């Protein structure tokens, strides 16, 4: 059976490639999306790749995923550290979710090491740049 996966990117990730390159690298979100789509095909998965700068829109996308996707991969950006609303949405839809970050959030400012999202996810992948999304797809393919 083909697995359906929704990849959600949060605020400021549309600026990848020009934003804090020393931390996030030079790959754009479009570059990452292309790699994710190619890898998903190889793994026999259907993937949709979206980005929003708005908390409510991200929550709507998570709600929309219910009954339509088998797994979610999410990089919630800065919402990672304080959005109880996104956490509650993930918990509510009961879809296996993997949290991804380009940077190693545990090796940066202290406020970034706390994720309010991680406890409702099956796991967290961080510190591998855009490859983290590919690792997350691989993790989801084993579910
Ligand atoms: C990020 C880490 C967050 O702390 C930050 O706010 C981001 C990007 C990452 O992918 O490394 O916007 O989620």
Automatic annotation (TrEMBL):
Family annotation (Pfam families): DHquinase_II
Pathway given in the UniProt record: Metabolic intermediate biosynthesis; chorismate biosynthesis; chorismate from D-erythrose 4-phosphate and phosphoenolpyruvate: step 3/7
Binding sites annotated in the UniProt record for substrate: 75, 81, 88, 102-103, 112
Keyword Amino-acid biosynthesis: yes
Any GO molecular function: 3-dehydroquinate dehydratase activity
Any one Gene Ontology BP term: amino acid biosynthetic process
Site positions for Transition state stabilizer: 19
EC annotation from Swiss-Prot or TrEMBL: 4.2.1.10
Oligomeric form and interacting partners: Homododecamer.
Function comment: Catalyzes a trans-dehydration via an enolate intermediate.
Protein name (Swiss-Prot/TrEMBL): 3-dehydroquinate dehydratase
Native species: Clostridium thermosuccinogenes
């Amino acid at each position: 059976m083909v697995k359906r996966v929704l990849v959600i990117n949060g605020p400021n990730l549309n600026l990848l490639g020009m934003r804090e390159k020393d931390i996030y690298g030079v790959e754009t979100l479009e570059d990452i999306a292309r790699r994710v789509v190619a890898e998903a095909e190889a793994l026999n998965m259907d993937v949709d790749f979206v980005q929003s700068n708005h908390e409510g829109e991200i929550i709507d996308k998570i709600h929309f995923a219910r009954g339509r996707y088998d797994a979610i991969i999410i990089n919630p950006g800065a919402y990672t550290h304080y959005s109880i609303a996104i956490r509650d949405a993930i918990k509510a839809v009961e879809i296996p979710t993997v949290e991804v970050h380009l940077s190693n959030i545990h090796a940066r400012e202290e406020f970034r090491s706390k994720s309010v999202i991680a406890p409702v996810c099956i796991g967290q992948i961080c510190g591998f740049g855009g490859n983290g999304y590919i690792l997350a797809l691989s993790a989801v393919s084993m579910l």
